Amino acid sequence: MKPIITLMIALVGLGTAQAHAQARNSTPNPQNLQSDLNSLGGNEAILRKARQMAPRNRARIVQEREVSRTLRLEVAAGYGYFAGGDPYTLTDNLGLQMDFHINPRWSLGARYYQASNSLSREGARVAQNAVLRPESTFFDATDYLKDTAFATLSWYPVYGKLNLFDLRVAQFDLYTLLGYGQVRLNSGSASTMTAGGGVGIWLTQSFSTRLEARWQSYTDQPQSGPRPLDVTVLSLSFGFLL
């Protein structure tokens, strides 16, 4: 009986030792795990299966600015539409603008716009009545804009990236600006101030476009007396970075 008990004890001890050995072998080895992870990118079969699961999901990360604007000159041409101001006239303009980018945050600029004017619906109605009534003072109460020139200071606090139809990554900047200059009116010249902001989109290292909204203030001089005007200018421009 004693030999049988001894044999049973020996078998139990052997089974316990084997269980401990299997547990040790099943414990992940950090070095082996790291090796498996490192080799995952080189396993083409796994990569193909991953792409098949989500073929259209792609991520593009741009760490730095796509377009460098340090000490670069931007020359642009644009169109602007005036909202507000004289209720009897509709005004828009075509012009040129230059911005010298000191760095990606700041730029100094100069702008010149040639204005085009026409009567609004209300203006046309009042003008028609004025023609029928020679005593009317309608034409003495208008003073239309001819052109505008001013200098600007722009600040670009926010920038980001746009994925354009998966064709390329374009950089955009949100900016604010302040400006001061002169307007030339039918009655003469007057000083003007402007402030606003917009978004500049830099499609390539050489091509740019801007969408902008500005408040502009000046005083015209109709024969009826000085009249302070506040207008909103919405503009679109396309330019080149030199």
- Amino-to-carboxy terminus distance: 103 Å
Number of strands: 8
Give helix % range: 10-25%
Shape: elongated
CATH class membership of the largest domain: Mainly Beta
Report low-confidence residues grouped into runs of 5 or more.
none
Query: Major sheet: order of its strands?
Result: 1-2-3-4-5-6-7-8
CATH architecture of the largest domain: Beta Barrel
Kindly identify the CATH topology of the largest domain.
Porin
Q: What share of the residues does DSSP label as strand, in percent?
A: over 45%
Radius of gyration: 36 Å
Element pattern in H and E? HHHEEEHEEEEE
Number of domains: 2
What is the typical, i.e. mean, pLDDT? 79
Structure class? alpha+beta
Largest β-sheet summary: 8 strands, antiparallel, barrel
Q: Please, how many helices?
A: 4
Q: How would you describe this protein?
A:
The protein is of the alpha+beta class and 242 residues long. It folds into 2 domains: 2-53, no CATH class; 72-241, Beta Barrel (Porin), CATH 2.40.160.20. The protein has 4 helices and 8 strands. The chain has helices spanning 2-26, 30-40, 44-53, 121-132, and strands at residues 72-84, 89-101, 106-119, 145-164, 168-185, 188-202, 207-220, 227-241. It has an 8-stranded antiparallel beta barrel with strand order 1-2-3-4-5-6-7-8. Strand 6 (188-202) and strand 7 (207-220) form a beta hairpin. The longest helix has 25 residues, at 2-26. It is elongated and about 90 Å long.
